[in-house]
Design goal:
Layout (H helix, E strand, L loop, with lengths): L3 E5 L1 E4 L2 E8 L6 H10 L22 E5 L8 H11 L5 E4 L4 H14 L5 E3 L3 H4 L7 E5 L4 E5 L1
Parallel strand pairs: 3-4, 4-5, 5-6
Antiparallel strand pairs: 1-8, 2-6, 3-7, 7-8
Helix pairs in contact: 1-2, 2-3
């Protein structure tokens, strides 16, 4: 029988998604990481930010976990494009989210009827205990992440 542990935070966008965790202890710039693969019309979404520890890692279908996003004015649009094309992560979990990131997920729900859960306000000390590759379920509606063992 599988055991699970639930971490409670705050949902920033609705939806439920399940996938393997991909964790970084570095802040994450969605714009720096994903813009180049998007303009290349890549089928994979490998992190293009050469300064990041996830450089060249494919985030497609993963649950991306990081401490906080590095915000830019294009962040929401870049995330929206990855969601709409179906090449991005399945969900995002972080300690401290921000409105521009959430706007991409909310726009995907409004314009394309695609839900992309984002959960924040979970201590990164607890999040970094999750091992890469661990199956997790993110519920943006309830603001929780379930670690499936």
């Amino acid at each position: 029988m599988k055991m699970s542990k639930i971490l409670k935070g705050r949902g920033l966008s609705d939806g439920i998604a399940e996938g393997e965790a991909l964790i970084t202890s570095q802040p994450f710039s969605i714009s720096a990481a994903f813009t180049f693969p998007l303009i290349q019309f890549s089928k994979k979404l490998k992190v293009a930010d050469r300064t990041h520890e996830l450089y060249r890692k494919d985030v497609r279908d993963k649950v991306l976990i990081f401490p906080y996003p590095i915000g830019t004015t294009t962040l929401g649009f870049v995330l929206l494009e990855t969601i709409h094309r179906g090449i991005g992560p399945r969900a995002i979990v972080c300690e401290r989210g921000e409105p521009l990131m959430s706007s991409g997920a909310v726009a995907a729900d409004i314009f394309f009827d695609i839900q992309f859960p984002i959960v924040d306000q979970i201590s990164f000390e607890n999040l970094k205990k999750i091992k890469n590759g661990t199956l997790v379920r993110v519920n943006g509606t309830t603001g929780s992440i379930e670690i499936i063992e």
